[in-house]
Specification:
heterodimer; A: mainly beta; 0% helix; B: 0% helix; 46% strand
Chain lengths: 111, 121
């Protein structure tokens, strides 16, 4: 019940395309859903986050879509660029507690 | 840069030796987390502190692992009698959690350090 399941494991997208990464959770106590971006050899960096009282949040080219009833949320990267090539992790936490991470998606944006 | 700082960044040690990692959180952050990450996996929670109190420990944290946060500032993670399976990146993170009744617009934003790579040979 504490797990966050992420898919796909890897993703190849052409430059300018849309990258979509999906996550699902079971624990209904989760109330905070961030996405982190991680480059090789670096720590995860917060990209964007959402709370379950909204269905969508957009920041620049990055959008989180949240479906509370389905217990799913996704990250959309519009106009994907080679510089977006990294590993993306979804995560969830309850009551400002620890983050539970998904397994990660390795994104490769081809020029 | 006033982000989360970890030291050392890389450590190679022989099996059976003890190692210690240090983490300096963002100034004024009252919560500090330790995670472990292996190649191709997401970070796994180990333990966290609220100020100097260790509030939760994962079952992943065996008896060979100990973490401290004296005076609620920096933290150390010690691994005794290292094993090859301990090879991983150890991530430290911090956040500011306000008292109940107050809100923080940024929510539970958790900031990670660059990690400390451990290789046990």
């Amino acid at each position: 019940q504490q797990q966050v399941k992420q898919s796909p494991q890897s993703l190849i997208v052409q430059k300018g395309g849309i990258s979509i990464i999906n996550c699902a959770y079971e624990n209904t106590a989760f109330d905070y859903f961030p996405w982190y971006q991680q480059f090789p050899g670096k720590g995860p960096a917060l990209l964007i986050a959402i709370r379950p009282d909204v269905s969508e949040k957009k920041e620049g080219r990055f959008t989180i879509s949240f479906n509370k009833s389905a217990k799913q949320f996704s990250l959309h990267i519009m106009d994907s660029q080679p510089g977006d090539s990294a590993t993306y992790f979804c995560a969830a936490s309850a009551r400002r507690g620890k983050l539970i991470f998904g397994q990660g998606t390795e994104l490769s944006v081809k020029p | 840069d006033t982000g989360v700082s970890q030291d050392p960044r890389h450590k190679i040690t022989k099996r059976g030796q003890n190692v210690t990692f240090r983490c300096d959180p963002i100034s004024e952050h009252n919560r500090l987390y330790w995670y472990r990450q292996t190649l191709g996996q997401g970070p796994e929670f180990l333990t966290y502190f609220q100020n100097e109190a260790q509030l939760e420990k994962s079952r992943l944290l065996s008896d060979r692992f100990s973490a401290e946060r004296p005076k609620g500032s920096f933290s150390t993670l010690e691994i005794q009698r290292t094993e090859q399976g301990d090879s991983a990146m150890y991530l430290c993170a911090s956040s500011l959690v306000l008292r109940r009744g107050l809100s923080l617009r940024s929510g539970n934003t958790i900031y990670f350090g660059e990690g400390s790579w451990l290789t046990v040979v």
